[in-house]
Amino acid sequence: MSEFVQYLVNGLTIGAFLALIALGYSMIYGVVRLINFAHGDVFMIGAFAGFGTLTTLGVTGGMALPAVLAAVAVGALTTGVVGTGIARAAYVPLLSSPRLALLISAIGVSLALEEGVKVLTSARFKSYPNALDGGRLLSGAVRVTYGQLALVVLSVVLMAALWLFVTRTVTGTAMRALAMDRDAARLQGVNVERLILATFFVGSMLAGAAGVMYGLYYVQISFGMGFLIGLRAFTAAVLGGIGNLPGTMVAGVAIGLVQSFSAGYVSSRWTDVIIFGLLIAVLALRPTGLFGERVVERA
Question: Which of 5, 7, 76, 208 is deepest in the core (most CB within 10 A)?
Answer without folding.
Answer: 208
